[in-house]
Amino acid sequence: MRVLGRRLSLYVVTAWVAITVNFLLPHLMPGNPVQNLIGKVTGQITPQQVRSIELLFGVGLHQGLWSQYVGYWHQLFLGNLGVSITLSTPVSSVLASAVPWTVGLIGVSTILSFILGTFAGALLGWFRGSRLDSVIPVATFFQAAPYFFLGTVVLLLFGSDLHWFPVLGAYSQSVTPGWHWDFVFSLLRYGELPVITIVLSSVAGWMLGMRNMMITMIAEDFVLMAVAKGLPRRKVIAHAARNAVLPSVANLSLAIGLVVSGALLVELVFNYPGVGNLLLQAVLNEDYPLIQGIFLVITMTVLAANLLADVLYFILDPRTRTEAAV
Amino acid sequence: MSSVRLPRSPKVLVGVGIVAFFAILTVIGPWLAPDNPSATNFLPNLGPSGSHWLGTTALGQDIFSQLLDGARATMIVAIVAGVVATVLSVIVGVAAGYLGGKTDDGLSLLSNVFLAIPGLPLLIVIDSYLPASGRSNSFAIGLIISLTGWAWGARVLRAQTMSLRNRDFVEAARIIGESRRRIMLFEIAPNLLPVLASSFLFTTLYSIGAYVTLAYVGLTSTAVWNWGTMMYWAQANNAPLAGQWYWFVPPGICIALIGTGLALLNFGIDEFINPRLRAAGLSGKVRRASGLPRRPRLGYTPVARRSPGRVVVTPARPTPSSTNVGA
Amino acid sequence: MDSATTNLTVDELNDTVLEIEDFCVDYGWGETAVRAVNNVNLSVRRSRVLGVAGESGSGKSTLVYAVTRLLRSPGVISGGSARLTYDDPTASDVKRRTVDLMAASGSELRAIRWSQVSIVLQSALNALNPVLRIGHEFDELLKTHRKDLKKEQRHARAVELLGLVGLNEDRLSRFPHELSGGQRQRIMIALALALDPQLVIMDEPTTALDVVTQREIVNELAQLRARFGFSMIFITHDLSLLVELADDIAVMYSGNVVEWAPAGDLYSAPRHPYTLGLLNSSPPLSGERHELVGIAGAPPDLSQPLSGCSFHNRCPFVLERCSRDVPPLRILDSSGRKAACWLHDDPTTVPVALRRVALATSPGEPAPGAPMTLAREEIR
Lengths: 326, 327, 380
Prior knowledge:
The complex is a heterotrimer.
Chain A: H1 2-28, H2 33-41, H3 47-57, H4 65-77, E1 83-84, E2 89-90, H5 91-126, H6 135-144, H7 147-161, H8 181-218, H9 221-228, H10 233-270, H11 275-284, H12 288-316, H13 318-325
Antiparallel strand pairs in A: 1-2
Helix pairs in contact in A: 1-12, 3-4, 5-8, 5-10, 5-12, 6-8, 7-8, 7-10, 8-10, 9-10, 10-11, 10-12, 11-12
Chain B: H1 10-32, H2 63-99, H3 101-116, H4 119-129, H5 132-135, H6 138-149, H7 151-165, H8 168-176, H9 180-217, H10 227-236, H11 245-273, H12 284-290, H13 320-324
Helix pairs in contact in B: 1-2, 1-11, 2-3, 2-6, 2-7, 2-9, 3-7, 4-6, 6-9, 7-9, 8-9, 9-10, 9-11, 10-11
Chain C: H1 10-14, E1 16-27, E2 34-45, E3 49-53, H2 60-67, E4 75-88, E5 95-100, H3 106-112, E6 117-120, H4 124-127, H5 134-145, H6 151-164, H7 181-193, E7 199-203, H8 211-228, E8 231-236, H9 239-245, E9 248-253, E10 256-262, H10 263-268, H11 273-280, E11 330-331, E12 338-339, H12 376-379
Parallel strand pairs in C: 3-8, 3-9, 6-7, 7-8
Antiparallel strand pairs in C: 1-2, 1-4, 4-5, 9-10, 10-12, 11-12
Helix pairs in contact in C: 5-6, 6-7, 7-8
């Protein structure tokens, strides 16, 4: 438990850093872009909305930096993330509708990619030196290609040219969202290509990491013992893989940030209604309250995912548990 | 550190080849470009032809020239970011690993925080506040990217330093009374080289991705030609959907290729660091002659058909003891 | 430990479990190959213990791993044969079966592994899967080889096996890292006996343990062996340990068997200078303490084999021909003991230390004259 406690405190510190950076950024930049922005959009949003932005960013309040910082925290606790200038809607409600899409898309893709990569890596490691090795450079190529590039190519090839998959959006315009079969089916169909893109881009990392760990594990005595015990090959591989997967799980929390970064761009390519798409729209429109709100939400979500990954590691490796008991 | 020799596997050779090719392109690419990449001298939307190998943009610019010219900007940012991030990660990682204690706690926390914050969103946020002059400055962009990219290397270097710290030769230097800085610089740093190289390659790879993504999103100056900007313009003009693959695809392929090259090189370094990863195979001829399997299989030690026929003929050597001992 | 090594009938002598003939193992192949085991002939008799002794790098472990086909790459078996004879439990009547281990297919090997030949490694911590509970190791093993057993029966068998090595059944729910070194090694022994194998190979099973635990485990092993009658190959660098447990001892040096003798004979009256050196470098089991003397010189470098006898550069009694001719392993006297040493060619060249008379003792009780030191003049 001590390990988990330490991780948790790391994430608390990280969250604090992210929030503080978020607060400081507008203040560090020359000419205070938020102030300019408010000047530009006056009239488009209500005076209360202007007020909420001012409270959050501390502009026009003539306060010291510290009291602005305290005020910022106060607004955060009230759930005020400011108002999106382009959408004239509170950032928190904009985010509430976008976050589930992103969590769903990236969550599903990451889990799929991890499982696929781990299995493939275990086999690649065990059958090292066989023809399977030729998968490695191909997978590396997919990993090295930018997510948005791969996404566009996949979209053109399989969506536009071959019409194998529906494209653009998260579900068909002809179904109404709700918990019924038509909608869920449409959701899954529209999710296929984005998921394929993210999996293609990220699977090589898991695969190669697992392969290397597998090769390292095969040199361990307990794997030789599994052979000496006359276990069938499948079980011997399982013995090695069960241990080789631990570093991958430990790295899961580190990698989530990287995967999320890339996957946000995939939303743009497929016009998926998640926060990635939203973020890039906000950037184009210089909608600073929205940009900063999105950054905060992404960071918090990633931290939560990290914590989940840490718990998973804790469950999988009995040694961490004993360390805690002692 | 007697010899740093990468294993000569085909993977590594291909990696070296690709990276060398793009390194040369970085230097001479802009000179090779047949036309000014920004000049709108030609008919718009031409397909690939003898005079325009990759056709022209919607504004009538030569795409091939943009591709050649863009190599430099892309690579410079990546290298600036890679170098700065590596320097940062060495300072933080080696100091944390070597000094230990409170310093280690603080520095580890710092790098873990930077690891946990998703890099690209942070980049986008910072970049969105940059004035136009900053966005067109390759060095500024490189520096910002390096800020989000150093933590991984620091973590790996810290672990390696910690394991080196307790080895005999470092212990010996400490007992002799060498200064800490000297020990870090001359005893530990050289032994970190492979890990360092690996972390540099990784960071460069990350930086290319980050820079190109920023450019594609439109967060760098669209007047600086790099591969990301090219894709930004292609996308903005709907080139992918319009079937102008020659506008959108070549820069993407270049990025993927150089990334593959860096990753392949990294495999070589991995195999250097961890000898278990090296393929332990026999050459084809020897293998066939002896009837040995291609791949060693755990738990089925191969039985050779006939002995290798190696006859040891060593001349009798008088040993020191044999002269003294009489019967 | 009531087995006397003498008075064996011909049948008993020929009743071998494992027969190793002209066995050669190389590391690598072709020009760069290194010979690790060279023309070894050994046999393990039914219900007896063969001790294999030697320094690290002598090839003792390489030999047994290669014989069981478990040797890792780049190990290659470059010659010879190894045959395992066992009672086939699947046959309707008890039937002896002999398998050529070098020609056996994957499935044949799998069937024999653990059910007929089991192995205990030096470090049980590394040999047990760190993320599996002890109970899982037993269950998986029994599930694979004893398909007729139900879940409860497998559990009962695991509890019974733990009882044999003096452990409580609550250990089944533990992970390896939660147990002490002695407990882990006991669990390995219990696992090794799980399927009533004909042959148990012990590769330095006690080296990683403290002296007290070492002693307890050796005693337990002796009792278990007397009770179940399995054959054993016991590998160690500690000759005094072997004498308590083994019926026969083979001493290996640089890939060759340099001496073979009944345990008591070898201990009380070594015939090879290397055996003498090994004895002098380990503390005696009982009797007065003597000065421990290491063997001069470095262990052999297999990649640069010496001409002649591989021990000649470290031998205190070296003769001129030793650096020239390779001494064959030859029978020395009517007891059948063998040594590969030129000193015994001519009775006048045998040093006093290699001329002792073997004391008629059973292997469990070392001869009183065991401590030996080289006379100074002999060393010179």
